Amino acid sequence: MNKQIFLDMDGVIVDLHHAVAERLGLADMTAFNRGELAMSDHEIWSGTDAEWWASLPWMNDGQAILKVCENAVGAENVIICSKPANWPGSAEGKLQWIASLMPTYARRFVLTPNKAWCANGRTLLIDDNADNILGFAQAGGAALLCPRPWNVLKDREPVWHLKSRIQEMIES
Length: 172
Ligand SMILES: [Mg+2]
Hints:
The chain is of the alpha/beta class. It has helices at residues 17-24, 30-33, 41-45, 50-54, 62-73, 90-101, 130-138, 158-171; strands spanning 4-7, 78-82, 109-111, 123-127, 142-145. It has a single domain, classed as 3-Layer(aba) Sandwich (Rossmann fold), CATH 3.40.50. Strands 3-2-1-4-5 form a five-stranded parallel sheet, with helices on both faces. Helix 5 packs parallel to helix 8. Magnesium ion is lined by residues 8, 10-12, 127-129.
């Protein structure tokens, strides 16, 4: 077993969608969470800054999901993998979030516009976006969709599902 887990932030461990819903006045965040919202970056992110990104809360089960990953491959093999918004302050705020809320990861992260660039025979991506999962798998990595209300695994319990699937994958 020689796996590294690349763990998504927004929608997996960081609760971005409630803050965005509040900003935009959207009741249904499905399109946003799928990356299908018909709005420009300016319309979505105008007015946000590093402090806004750094102050987002954990997902309710975010710390439990992190623990599942750490238990499966060892904390030293878990890497935070996040795509910053195409807007000033997003990358900086994400790094501040990691440094203050999960300081042992302050030097163990990848910020990238394309997670598939991290795909190889040793890496396992955990992400809530089906397109990211597909792209990572097509690029030669392993990938697991984190069950969320906006994706096809919406009826699964996220922590239980990830725990059992990660175990299957690292043993295979
Ligand atoms: Mg995500």
